[in-house]
Amino acid sequence: QVQLVESGGGLVQAGGSLRLSCAASTRTFSRYAMGWFRQAPGKEREFVAAISWTGGTTNYTDSVKGRFTISRDNAKNTVYLQMNVLKPEDTAVYYCAARDNNYNTYDYWGQGTQVTVSS
Question: Could you read off the pLDDT of 47-92 as tens digits, one per residue?
């Protein structure tokens, strides 16, 4: 079992920045690829970014490329999402998730953190 706790959300003006953190309670954090997802009101949850267990491979949804950066610190069991040049359309609840390297699905999810970008 992996428990994930997000933090760092809040209210920010358009053009501003936030850094989300996700702390994992597991002794085998490096066993998991990590991802960030978001869900806006009335919309389905969507993929935002992912990072491999080594941190050497990352990928992003097109709408955040060049603005968001995912990273991880395996010594701290934490994954981050640095969000710059935020736009009102980035407003959503952001979730982190963990995927065992041997599987293709994200099986562990955090409770989410609200990000609100005002125009």
Answer: 999 999 999 999 999 999 999 999 999 999 999 999 999 999 999 9
Phi and psi, residue 32, nearest 5° = -115, 135
Residue whose structure tokens are 């995927």: 99
Q: Cα(71)–Cα(52) distance, rounded to whole angstroms?
A: 9
Angle, vertex CA 57, rays to CA 55 and CA 60, nearest 5: 110
Both tokens assigned to 104 = 């293709």
User: Any residues with CB less than 8 A from the CB of 48 and at least 6 apart, and which?
Assistant: 35, 36, 37, 38, 60, 61, 64, 68, 81, 94
